[in-house]
Input
Amino acid sequence: MYPVGDATGSNAMAAAAPTSPQLSVVIASTNDGALLIRCLEALTADADPARVEVLVARDTERTDGLDGTGVRERFPAVRWIDAPPGSTVPRLRAIGIAESRGEIVGLLEDDCVVSPGWCPAAIRAHVSPDVAIGGAVEPGPYAKALEWGVYFCEYGRFMLPVRKAAHPPLPGNNVTYKRRALTELSSSPDGFQDVFVHAAWQRAGLKTSATPALVVWNINSWSLRHVTVVPYHHGRGYSAKRFRTKSVGLRVVIAVMALGLPVLKTCRIVASTVSRRRLTGQLLAALPWVLVFTASWSVGECAGSLFGPGSSPSRWR
Output
């Protein structure tokens, strides 16, 4: 089970707002108020107001799910950032990072519940020289095989136990950064796209790492569109950005190769899960949905390589 915490931390945070926090935690919020409340309950209960600030960035048009819940009143010490209409998750992250003040910046999403001790663990972790330190994303109480399918495709490589590697994969919804590394980045109209930032740092020889001390539980639930429509747009946007400078001929070759991604990605997911010796039963039940998800992503990558991003980058919610 995952810990939920309570809202008492928000009252303590209100008593002493930090003038120079050690840690800023930016939450990109695109889901309903019930998920956001659970996220903030755990986080604010864990946040020392003398060291930590919490920021929630949310599209001003996404008032659905917040009206009548009293979320803002319940967490008065949280800094609420009203992002421009149509803001994607990467844009929400970029806006939150720009508004934050801490020497360490953590990124979460509103469907994640942090483990007890997450905030002090993040501060301790950055005693190291690593520019980025990520953690684990554990499954919530999923009720359907489809939900498990989305989990394995999106977060399976981040589940416990955390693997030691020179360049470990870092989850965009459970990662922390040194501010000095972020301030050196060039601004992008696409927002803060973690996968490209991490790859650039690793190519530059900057060290990143992952620690089991930083754990979040993903508590979202997903519908059919999350294994059909959403992966397509993510795959198309990713491929278009990654290969946009390549020649037409090479992009055609890449598009053809992308058609083999369902098999390749599914094999990687199976190998990663089996090697951890846990959740294999859930994976077996979810395999049909894993194949649907990876097929949708594959078609998206193919389209992105051939025709560019289209409207896909604006669909990341």
In short: Residues 1-18 have pLDDT under 50 and may be disordered. The beta strands are 23-29, 52-59, 79-83, 104-109, 112-114, 132-139, 174-178, 208-218. The chain has twelve helices and eight strands. The first strand starts at residue 23 and ends at 29.
